[in-house]
Amino acid sequence: MTLTLAAIGYRYAGSGEPALLDVDLELRGGEVIGLVGASESGKTTLCLVASGLAPRAIGGLLRGRIAIDGEDVDSWPMHRLSQHVGIGFQSPATQLSQVTATVFEEVAFGPVNFALPRDEVAARTWDALSTVGITDLAERDPRRLSGGQQQLLAIAGLLALGPAHLVLDEPTAQLDPEGTRLVTDALARLAEGGTAILVAEQKTDVLAALASRIAVLDHGRLVMAGPSDEVLGDRRLTELGVTPPAVVRLRQAAAAAGIGAGLLAEALIDA
Amino acid sequence: MVLGGLVGPSVLLAVAVIAPALAAGVLRDLARTSALLALPIAASALLVNVFFFPGGQTELLRVGPIVATAEGLAFAIEILARIMAISGAVTLFYLTTRPADLVVDLERRGISPRVAFVANASVQTVPAMVERASQITDAQRARGLDTEGGLWKRLSGIVPIVGPVILGSIAEVEERTLALEARGFTRPGRRTLLWAPTDRAWEAVLRWALVIALFGLVVLRVTGMFP
Q1: Cα-flanking dihedrals φ and ψ of residue B217, to 5°?
Q2: Smallest Cβ distance to B182: which of A51, A94, A96?
Q3: In what helix (H) or strand (E) does residue A71 lie, and over which residues does it extend?
Q4: Which value does ipTM take for this structure?
Q5: B124 interface with A at CB cutoff 8 Å
Q6: Angstrom distances, CA of residue A111 to CA of A23, A108, A114
Q7: Could you state, in order of their start, the residue ranges of all structural domains in chain A?
Q8: Which is higher by pLDDT, B100 or A170?
Q9: CA distance B163 to chain A (A)
Q10: Which A-chain residues 209-248 have CB contacts (< 8 A) with chain B?
Q11: Does A107 contact B at CB distance below 8 Å?
């Protein structure tokens, strides 16, 4: 299962400037790609384009080619695409349908829209709940959950449609450390299970633990892409408006102060 | 129409409102809520009719140029009986019907899933807005906004609360729409119905009986056989 973005350019309706220019990206099964960049660098836009919401739901002008396993998705309506690519957003609460009384019904909302038989809706819902680890919340009121739990619920709601790819736009931005850990763990498990994940994230510490590759956006262009360690350790990251992970910053500070890697490791163990 | 005189509304109130409310165990709530609901219109109907009933002869009380008449009082009581029957029926419906049940049942009977969603979402929005308002009230209080005290102070405190409540909801609309779109909401066609409200045979019979009774009462009333 591969999601391919080739030579993607995108311009919002009514905007003179393109928001994305010449972006190439390939997302394969089981892989987590971290998307970083300063604010306004095009992370959200790339998420919207990769999921198909741009231009299908929000208009605008798209260039280039998006394909799933080699098949061009250009003519696919949103509801067909959403069975292959799921998209999640920052705010946990706004992603909920607001018309359901229980977590179970909330997750079932997607399959229900596809008029699947009742048994299959239930099977998919239980499956999605157990994948993100919130089976025990099934009977709870979605509005009464913590932010982290709501974000897991939103992800389960996407998974119930059976997508092979997930696109997540800063899923931990509004979460506390505990919520961030819940979501990060769930994403790691999903990737292990073969789901391909593209995750835009400011918290590079989260990405250091989660992503196998990192792509850096700057003014709508993909300026750096490669293995996670390499990109997150790159000194140009700060100039591009991205804060490197704490480990990298510590290593860089130590090196600048003339402390060798061996000494630093010892000092850390002592600490 | 159906509700004429005093006997008609009273019988309807007893048979179609109070008896079912007793059966459902909501009589106390029903009495309180329907009385509150009817209060403004009942009070004005009482005042206007007791004191200004045209053609009132029997004087009960005189306050300066204004005269309360027995005929006015009798008419006001008739009106009150009607108002209580109507507000009782509305309250009974509200107290005994979960919005989700109603929407699911309407969807089962063929209304469009989008209409059902809008109906459901409108009902569910109320508690969400109340919660948002209370959060914003707390936030504004923390910044020194006075929401207690005199009437003027309270009124001037409304703007910094209502503004964010409404603007916040509008700002969320786009993300909310996209999230729905991403879950197949715009897919045309029918939806799976996860459950159906229990509907026993005798309930269906009762519903039809009520419809027939309504027509029957209208006929009786028009022909003058029902008070």
Answers
A1: -65, -40
A2: A51
A3: strand A71-72
A4: 0.88
A5: yes
A6: 32, 5, 5
A7: 2-84+163-228
A8: A170
A9: 19
A10: none
A11: no
Say how many Å lie between the first and final Cα of chain A, rounded.
45
B189 interface with A at CB cutoff 8 Å: yes
Q: What is the pTM of this model?
A: 0.80
> In the structure encoding, which two tokens stand for residue B92, read together?
């009974």
> Would you place residue B1 in the very low, low, confident or very high pLDDT band (cuts 50, 70, 90)?
very low
In sign, the C-alpha dihedral spanning A138, A141, A144, A147 is positive
Q: What residues does each domain of chain B span?
A: 7-96, 101-181, 200-227
Task: Provide the residue type at A46 as one letter.
Answer: L
- B130 and A CB contact within 8 Å: no
Q: Do A211 and A34 touch, CB atoms closer than 8 A?
A: yes
The C-alpha R_g of chain B, in whole angstroms, comes to: 25
Which pair of structure tokens corresponds to residue A14? 């009514």
E strand or H helix that includes residue B136: helix B113-142
Look at A42-51, A108-117, A207-216, B120-129 and tell me which has the smallest mean pLDDT.
Answer: B120-129
State how far the Cα of A202 lies from the Cα of A39, in Å rounded to an integer. Answer: 9
CA–CA separation, A136 vs A122, rounded Å? Answer: 15
Second-level CATH architecture of A2-84+163-228: 3-Layer(aba) Sandwich (3.40)
Whole-number mean pLDDT of chain A?
92
